[in-house]
Write a sequence for this structure.
C-alpha cells in the first residue's frame, strides 16, 4: 500500500493552487517531480500584474515626498512606472535563483540529498503566495488611493501608519511564505524541522533588514 501511494505521488505533478489547500502534499510531489517552467511563467505574469497596479497607484506626490524636485517628478514617475512593470517579470525569477542557491549551499553543508532543481521548483511554488498578496494589496491600494508602500495586510496597514518601516514588513502573506518555506525545506529538502525553521526565519529577517536599509536611504538628507 505504501509503495502504491509513493508511485501515485511520483506520477502526479505539483499544483500552484495546492499551495493554499495542501502544501505538504505539493512539497512531496515537488521532491519526486520538480516542475518549474509553467509555474514560473505564471508567477512572473502575476508579479507583473501586481507591479503594474503598484505603478498605477503612484503619483508625483509620492516621489516629491521622497525628496525629488517637483519639476523632475513627472518625468521620473514615468521612468519609475515602466521600470517597475518590467521588474515585475524578472524580480521573482532573481529572487528564486538567489534563495535556491543559498539553500543549496546550506544543503551541501547539512548533507541533504536535495538538488538545485528541487529547491528551485519548491521556491517557485511558494512564490504564488507572495504574488497573490501583491495583487490583492495593490488592487486595494489602487482602488482607495492608498500608499502602495503600505500593505493593508501588514501591521502598518492595520494601524493606519503612513510610513513604511518594520511594521510594514510584518505582513500576512510574508509570514505565510515563512511557514511554507519551513515546511518545504523539511519535506522537499529533508532538512530537520529546527534547521528548516531557522533558515526560513533568517531569510525573513534579512528581507526586513534590506527593507529598513532602503527606507533609511530614502529618508537620508540629500546633499
Amino acid at each position: 500500500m505504501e509503495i502504491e501511494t509513493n508511485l501515485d505521488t511520483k506520477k502526479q505533478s505539483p499544483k500552484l493552487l495546492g499551495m493554499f489547500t495542501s502544501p505538504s502534499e505539493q512539497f512531496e510531489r515537488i521532491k519526486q517531480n520538480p516542475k518549474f517552467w509553467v509555474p514560473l511563467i505564471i508567477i512572473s505574469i502575476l508579479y507583473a500584474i501586481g507591479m503594474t497596479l503598484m505603478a498605477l497607484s503612484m503619483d508625483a506626490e509620492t516621489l516629491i515626498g521622497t525628496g525629488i524636485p517637483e519639476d523632475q517628478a513627472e518625468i521620473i514617475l514615468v521612468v519609475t512606472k515602466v521600470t517597475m512593470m518590467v521588474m515585475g517579470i524578472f524580480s521573482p525569477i532573481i529572487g528564486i535563483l538567489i534563495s535556491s542557491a543559498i539553500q543549496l549551499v546550506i544543503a551541501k553543508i547539512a548533507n541533504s540529498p536535495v538538488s538545485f532543481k528541487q529547491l528551485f521548483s519548491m521556491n517557485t511554488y511558494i512564490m504564488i503566495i507572495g504574488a497573490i498578496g501583491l495583487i490583492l494589496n495593490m488592487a486595494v491600494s489602487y482602488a482607495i488611493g492608498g500608499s502602495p508602500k503600505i500593505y493593508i495586510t501588514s501591521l502598518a496597514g492595520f494601524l493606519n501608519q503612513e510610513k513604511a518601516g518594520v511594521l510594514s514588513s510584518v505582513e500576512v502573506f510574508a509570514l505565510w511564505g515563512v511557514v511554507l518555506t519551513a515546511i518545504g525545506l523539511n519535506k522537499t529538502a529533508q532538512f530537520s524541522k529546527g534547521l528548516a525553521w531557522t533558515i526560513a526565519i533568517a531569510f525573513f529577517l534579512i528581507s526586513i533588514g534590506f527593507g529598513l536599509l532602503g527606507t533609511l536611504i530614502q529618508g537620508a538628507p540629500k546633499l
In short: The chain is about 75% helix and 0% strand.
